[in-house]
Amino acid sequence: MTTMAKAIQQELDLGLPGEVTPVSYTLPADMEYDQWEQAGRLIARIGRASRWWIGDWLLEGEARFGEKASQLMDSLGLEYSSLSNIAWVAKRVPPEVRREDLSWSHHEVVAVLERPEDQVKWLARAAEQGWKRDELRAHLKGKEVRDPDADAKPRAALSPARQGLVKTAIEATANRWWNGLTKDREVEKLVQDQAFRAGEFERLANLGMKAVLKALGSGA
């Protein structure tokens, strides 16, 4: 290891075995699985925490040092435009609200809420329900003022006639989808290609949803 590499290693002392540089991580040749797993867990924790560190560092630096903070970021090659969202989320979501068991993206979703207590409730609901970021956003969209602990109103059951419309629409859509695959001779690909299969099933789900909405919109 060169003198420069040693200096970088000391500067980036993250407790990782092996050699760490700003653009690489070289693992020890004799690393055992347990050590590899521990290193991975540490890297994952650093990755999850790094945006919070950056955001809090930026906010505190600006509050304390003003223009000097901006000048330092320029000298370090940090573009504030690319970091502004990180700083915004860190400012909007205080440390006592943040959850280690949820991603930064989850917190970014609830940052639009004004009250920390609402952020706490929605983050707790996301953790309890196992919602991904997009699922949390879908539940939250347009419902910022609704209490997530409030009981949702039960939906009215479909009438037998409307149930028949839904069944007919789904069956017709599935048949058209299947006939299209057989016509294009893509059935074998559906069996063998996982990516193609996932894409086709997603397309079928979208087609089915559109058909159901159209059928229900026609009344019964």
Structural topology:
Blueprint lengths: L2 H9 L7 E3 L2 E3 L6 H33 L1 H9 L4 H13 L11 H7 L5 H14 L3 H8 L19 H24 L3 H6 L1 H24 L3
Antiparallel strand pairs: 1-2
Helix pairs in contact: 2-3, 2-4, 5-7, 8-10
Note the main sheet: 2 strands, antiparallel
Distance between the termini: 77 Å
* Percent range of helical residues: 55-70%
Taken as a percent bin, the fraction of beta residues is under 5%
| Order of helix and strand elements from N to C terminus | HEEHHHHHHHHH
Radius of gyration: 26 Å
The helix/strand class is mainly alpha
Q: Could you list the spans in which at least 5 consecutive residues all have pLDDT below 50?
A: none
- Overall mean confidence score, pLDDT: 79
Helical stretch tally: 10
Strand order of the largest sheet: 1-2
How many β strands by DSSP?
2
